[in-house]
Write a structure and sequence with these properties.
The chain is mainly alpha-helical. Helix content is about 60%, strand content about 0%. Helix 11 (about 215-245) runs antiparallel to helix 12 (about 260-265).
Length: about 280
């Protein structure tokens, strides 16, 4: 007598098994292309880990940029409900990216040095998706386009984002639309330049935090922006610390000073007035 094993799940008759010429999971996600995109340059075991972590991170960064672009459109249209939703998603994406550094940190300095030279000048600093996300969040720097000049299509897209209002810019316009006296120079500035803190913006946020019941949507939006910066700074710190753990104070493959360069990024704030007012409240 044939008995069904207890540790066994029978295939249900309704499950699709004939997928020839039909949409399948692999076709929908283009898995043949995705899963064949890992091409180690050496025979070192940990190079596969290095590649997969960075490729997965690029996908998460792409999604984060997609969501921030949606948030910019939502805020510009006064659609705070959807803005809150996508901003919360960005926070979780950044948490996922932060966790990925812990996986990479299982690679020891000895493991990495076995294949590091094969990378040549390739560096995460050249990440298009990361650069776009930083531009969308307001960390603008035209000189950074130089890293992408070798790819005209990518460079053109980054230049578009560089010159367009970032997330904080549309938020400041919303403050102005709601009656707060934001200096005109902040609303009509050259958006390709780095944002500088401003007393009128700080005063507006102070008023919002002094009366959150009246300005609840703006108050909630402000806290959502702080969530993004908090998550982004955790990602930056974990990045810096992982690099320090693996290569110490060696220069980066892309030509930077390495850890000292990454530490300076932690000092950069996307929404400076939202942190400054915490001292005043």
């Amino acid at each position: 007598m044939n008995e069904t094993p207890t540790n066994y799940r029978e295939l249900e008759e309704s499950i699709h098994t004939d997928l020839k010429d039909r949409m399948s999971y692999g076709r929908y996600l283009h898995l043949p292309e995705v899963l064949s995109a890992q091409h180690p340059l050496t025979d070192q075991h940990d190079e596969m880990l290095f590649i997969v972590i960075h490729q997965a991170s690029e996908l998460w960064l792409k999604l984060a940029g997609h969501e921030v672009e949606a948030a910019i459109a939502n805020v510009a249209e006064g659609d705070f409900r959807h803005a809150f939703k996508v901003i919360a998603r960005v926070k979780m994406i950044l948490a996922q990216l932060t966790q990925s550094w812990s996986i990479l940190a299982t690679m020891t300095p000895v493991d990495y040095l076995k294949f590091r030279d094969a990378l040549g000048p390739a560096s995460g600093f050249q990440s298009y998706a990361y650069r776009k996300l930083e531009f969308l969040l307001g960390n603008k720097n035209r000189r950074l386009l130089g890293v992408h000049r070798h790819d005209p299509e990518v460079c053109a897209e980054l230049e578009r984002v560089l010159e367009a209002p970032g997330l904080y810019d549309v938020v400041l316009q919303k403050l102005s639309d709601d009656g707060f006296a934001i200096d005109r120079e902040k609303l009509e500035r050259d958006f390709s330049r780095p944002y500088e803190p401003n007393a009128s913006v700080q005063a507006a946020w102070h008023a919002v935090y002094d009366d959150p019941d009246t300005y609840f949507e703006l108050y909630e939006l402000a806290e959502k922006l702080v969530d993004i910066e908090d998550a982004f700074q955790l990602w930056r710190f974990k990045h810096m610390y992982t690099v320090q753990r693996i290569i110490g104070n060696r220069p980066g493959t892309g030509g930077s000073s390495g850890v000292p360069f990454l530490k300076r990024a932690i000092e950069t704030s996307f929404f400076p007035e939202l942190f400054a007012i915490r001292t005043e409240l």
